[in-house]
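ok trying this again, last paste got cut off
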Amino acid sequence: MIGVSQFRGLMAQRQVLRTLVERDLRVRYAGSVLGYVWTVLDPLLMALVYFIVFTLIFTARQTGNQPYFLHLITGLFLWQWFASNMSESSRALLSESRLVRSANLPRELWVVRVVLAKGIEFVLTLPVVVAFTVFYLVTGATKLHWTIVFIPVALVLTFLLSVGIGMILAPITVLVTDMARVVRIALRLGFYATPVLYSADMAPDTLRTVLALNPMSGILELFRSGFFKGEMNLLSVASACVLTVVLLLVGAFVFKRLEPAVLKEI
C-alpha cells in the first residue's frame, strides 16, 4: 500500500525530520529579543483581550458552554493550530523548492515538519489554557471530567488530519497558483463551520448532521469534553476519526500521484 510505504519512509528519516523541525523553530525566532517567549505571550495577550471582550463587555454570552471564556480559548487555540497547519503546509513544497528537488528524502517530510513545528508551538500555548482552567476551578465556575484523558487523542487526530489534508494541498498548490487563495477562503468559512465560538448542540438537528461531517467539529468536541460535561457527541467524534483516516490515505495517494508533476514544476 502507498500509505504504508510512505509511513515507513518517514519513520526511517526521524532524525532528519527532527532536524528540520528544530531549524524551522530556530529560524522563526532568529533575531527576536524574546525568542520562544512570544509563543506563550502571543496567545496570552489574545486570551486577555477575549477575556475583556467576552466577560466584561458582552453581557449576553449564552453562545456556548459556561464559563464561556474557557469554551472560547479551548476551541480557538486548537483551531488556530489547524488553520496554521493548512496555511503553511499548502506552501510547504514551494517554500523549500530547492531542497525538495535536490534532497534524497521522502518529500512528504516537508509537510510533516510544518505540522510538527506548529504542533510544538501549540503545545507551548497550553499553559495559558491550564492557567485559566485553574482559575475557574478555584472560583467554582467549572470542574473537570474524566474525559479529559481524551485530550492527547484529539491532538493526535488534529496532527493526522493536518498531515492528510496538507499532502493534498501541498502538491496542488504547486500546480495551481490560485490554490493559496482557495485555502484562505476555505479557512474563513471553516472557522464558522466549526463550533469554535458556539456549541454544536445549539445548532438545529439538520445543521448538526452537517457539522458532524466536519472532522474538526468532532475533534474539538473531544478536546473540550474534559472541560465541559456533555460536550462530546459520539457520532461527531466517530465521524471525525473515520474522516481523518480517509483523508490521510487520500492525501498519501494524491501526493504520490502528483509528485512527478510537482518535481517538474519546481
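PB: full thing came through this time. The first helix runs from residue 2 to 12.
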